[in-house]
Amino acid sequence: MIFDFIDGGAEDEVTLRANADAFRRLALRPRRLVDVSRTHQATTILGAPVSTPVLLSPTGLARLTARGGEVAVARAAGRKGTLFTLSTMASSTIEDVRAATDGPLWFQLYMWRDQELVDRLVDRVQTAGYDGLMVAVDVPVVGKRERDLRSGFTLPPRLRARTALDLLRHPRWMREVLAGRPVTFENIADAAPGQVVAVAQYVNQELSNPGATWEDLGRVRSRWSGPLVLKGVMTAEDTERAIDAGMQGIVVSNHGGRQLDGELGALEALPEVLEAARGRVEVYLEGGVRRGSDVVKALALGARACFVGRPYLYGLANGGSAGVEAVIATLMDEIDSTLALVGRPSIDGLDRSVLCPAHPPLLA
Ligand SMILES: Cc1cc2nc3c(=O)[nH]c(=O)nc-3n(C[C@H](O)[C@H](O)[C@H](O)COP(=O)(O)O)c2cc1C
Hints:
Layout: H1 2-7, H2 14-24, E1 26-28, E2 43-45, E3 48-50, E4 54-56, H3 69-80, E5 84-86, H4 94-100, E6 105-109, H5 115-128, E7 132-136, H6 146-151, H7 161-168, H8 171-178, H9 199-207, H10 214-223, E8 228-233, H11 236-244, E9 249-252, H12 266-277, E10 282-286, H13 292-301, E11 305-308, H14 310-342, E12 355-357
Parallel strand pairs: 4-11, 5-6, 6-7, 7-8, 8-9, 9-10, 10-11
Antiparallel strand pairs: 1-12, 2-3
Helix pairs in contact: 3-4, 3-14, 11-12, 13-14
Bound molecules: flavin mononucleotide (FMN).
């Protein structure tokens, strides 16, 4: 049930698959006999130094995956020298997560119906000393995630005939998660559900604001004094509007294929957004990144960095904080070896000459 909550996407999962498949549409063009004895992947994100262009996406309810949840993820990100983004839907507090890392830390905000709740969140994040605010604009309503409907996923998870066998097969999870401190939306206690709920239905009925528009972004912009990033942009038009609205960064994202099924894979939308942005803001790619070579391809197209979601949750499920570190380390190793093998020792030297279509015609 929890695996499907993490792994799944909306409806037929066409966009979920497109996110990963898009990377296969690009091939790498290696240069040989270049000195690659030292490779370099450290960079900066809106001025903050990070050891790698692999950043961690916001994911809700990480304590459902493993004890420690978001705190364990933030600690791992800090140890590896990269950025973590805490979700509005987190199951750990804003303050506990800030205490877990000295590294760069952002908060992901939803512009919900209850604007005072949103204001309070922004103030709390500011007081806690977060380095950036990422406003996610791709959830006017929650996408139809059929795996959750099929598995009967609720919060808190419920032991029912349909789920009993699944739960009983995972005694360690039952001991650590189900029997541990109840998992809930820790930062929106006033709005957190008092009873067992289907998360999507609950968010649609109680929280989300399908009436939110670009004008509402002004309220956040004037309240938050730090860097502001918009998550969920897929078109040139929205890129222009995001820049007009005072954003410093844009995350090209379809929410990991969990929202609108049938939109492009995120990588497929990246060139359009980059062209519209014309270097005025940092542009990040999120969705389907599973290998260091995927990161290299996105950077070669022009992205500043990549966010990953599911990969670190799988690491968390397998090995807690150390598991998340292992995932980041694996991606970093793969970036280093890909840089060496394409003959571009530094990410600064990546450009479109590294790329070509994966299936060029063999005969004219
Ligand atoms: C279990 C799960 C929960 C998520 N929760 C949130 C969330 O609360 N807020 C948000 O902006 N994005 C959320 N996302 C989307 C991620 O931030 C990100 O867009 C996505 O995971 C990136 O794709 P990837 O998993 O292929 O790397 C969630 C994703 C997953 C898998």
